[in-house]
Amino acid sequence: MSGSNDHIDDNAQRYGKQAILAAAERLQSGGLVAVPTETVYGLAADSTNASAIAEIYRTKGRPDFNPLIVHVPSIAAAEKLGLLNDLANKLAKKYWPGPLTLVVPKTPDCPVARAVTAGLETIALRCPAHPLMQELLATSGLFLAAPSANKSGGISPTKPKHVEHSLGMATPMILDGGPCENGIESTIVAIRGDDYQILRPGPITAEQLEKCAGKRPVDQQGEKIEAPGQLASHYAPSKPVRLNATQPEPDDYHIGFGAIAGVISLSVSGDMAEAASNLFAALHVADSSDRPHIAIAPIPKIGIGVAINDRLERAAQKA
Ligand code: TXA
Ligand code: MG
Question: CB–CB of 126/186 below 8 Å?
Answer without folding.
Answer: yes
